[in-house]
Amino acid sequence: MPERLPDEARRAAESIGKADVVIGIPSYNNARTIEHVVRAANAGLSKYFPEFNGVVINADGGSTDNTREAVLSARIEDGHLMLVSAPLSVAHRLSLPYHGIPGKGSAFRLIFQMAAALEAKACAVVDSDLRSITPEWIDLLLRPILFAEFDFVAPYYHRHKYDGTITNSIVYPLTRALYGLRVRQPIGGEFGISSRVIARYLERDDWETDVARYGIDIWMTTIAIAEGFRVCQSFLGAKLHDAKDPSSDLTAMLHQVVGSVFMLMDEYESVWRGQTGSKPAELFGFRFDVGLDPVDVNVERMIHAFQKGCAELEEVWSLALQPETHAQIRKLAAGLSENPITFHLEDELWTRVILDFACAYKQHPLSSAHLLQSLTPLYLARVASFVYETRNLASVQVEDKIEQLCLTFETLKPYLLAHWDREPVLPPEPVPAGAEQGQETKLEV
């Protein structure tokens, strides 16, 4: 049995014994939406995997809104599913509190520990705020693992052009350029995982880092790709969830996700250094067009944050960015006062910004937190530019724009390599007060 399995979870695993498949649902105050997710998970197990013993596990972070009660009380009428064959057994349903650092990654750790303890062949994890999940999602996430010998299934779905901006502007282009596999939603939230990959995750010792929070999705995806597991995608339709305006406070998510990407770059340098170009990941499921919820975007707020960053973060940006990149950012900010509507942060400049930050993160580990914090205004500037550029474009045209950005990241791989190995340029040390007059400076301990 995996180490550090909490007593309540251990007793539940011992009571169940074994399970073929596990569905994991992390939650925190999701009473409004989680019942639908649980019902879809149960229905998917009953309809598509009647021959398997299944367990639905909710790993909860201390909800105070009856989330756990909603999980345990969810019901589904089997007659509405038009089952071809009756399930051998009704899926167990558990709601367990997780411990450790508050966050999605800690919830996943408990789910993976339970899957290992139950000797499950496969595990699927899904977000608790989904409104578009159907029983078919469970089939599409698990079937490639159970019947096609894949190890990791990433989601592929349609999203509003302004939903998933961290994915579209940073994580997808960078991950694709580094490791050479086009996994369109590397931080999508819904995944299928084999027992082999779960065992590998549980072996690792970085669960007390940002992996315990929002960094978990890209951590899972990167390990699966970089370590040579069989990776595919499944088309799930639309992702309708509680989307946020990109100008709202996504700071913690941005820092944790991008920090995890940069941390893994250092670990898997030997994998990505010689990688050129990219190839598509195999895609399962029937693709179709879907309607999407609108996402409101406050461009003015993003532009203001960028201008404020230019005024306050000059010193940190001079550490993070190459001189030419920094000069172009300053020029871009200066032009805002003339005509904001023409604001445009071009693909090549944006790519160099991210690659510069990746190198600085490696070269200045003691300043990594400040570096990541200073990236937020630049990210908001890129999103604002993207909104201006794509306001009147259809989804297909927007996807073409994202593809062009990805190709720019791939093209600039030599730029990354050229700066990755350089010795860090240390920032100038501040002159102690009075030193310029030749006065003696004393340090108080």
Write the layout of secondary structure elements.
Layout lengths: L6 H10 L4 E7 L3 H18 L5 E7 L6 H7 L18 E6 L6 H14 L4 E4 L9 H14 L3 E7 L6 H15 L1 E2 L8 E4 H9 L12 H11 L4 E8 L12 H17 L1 H4 L6 E2 L1 E3 L14 H14 L1 H7 L2 H13 L11 H17 L4 H23 L4 H17 L1 H8 L25
Parallel strand pairs: 1-2, 1-4, 2-3, 5-8, 6-9, 8-10
Antiparallel strand pairs: 4-7, 5-7
Helix pairs in contact: 2-3, 2-5, 4-7, 6-9, 6-16, 8-9, 9-15, 11-15, 13-14, 14-15, 14-16, 14-17
Jot down its keywords:
single chain; 445 residues; alpha/beta; Spore Coat Polysaccharide Biosynthesis Protein SpsA, Chain A; 2 domains; two-stranded parallel sheet; disordered C terminus
Report what the structure shows.
With 445 residues, the protein is α/β, with parallel strands linked by helices. It folds into two domains: 268 residues, Spore Coat Polysaccharide Biosynthesis Protein SpsA, Chain A (Alpha-Beta Complex), CATH 3.90.550.10; 122 residues, no CATH class. 49% of the residues lie in helices and 11% in strands. Helix 3 links the parallel strand 2 and strand 3. Helix 2 crosses helix 5. It is globular and about 65 Å long.
Any idea what the CATH superfamily of the largest domain is called?
A: Spore Coat Polysaccharide Biosynthesis Protein SpsA, Chain A
Quaternary status: single chain
- What is the average per-residue confidence, as pLDDT, rounded to a whole number? 88
Structural class: alpha/beta
**Which value, in Å, is the CA radius of gyration?**
23 Å
Name of the CATH class of the largest domain = Alpha Beta
CATH architecture of the largest domain: Alpha-Beta Complex
* H/E topology pattern: HEHEHEHEHEHEEHHEHHEEHHHHHHH
Number of helices: 17
The main sheet orders its strands as 3-2-1-4-7-5-8-10
* Domain count: 2
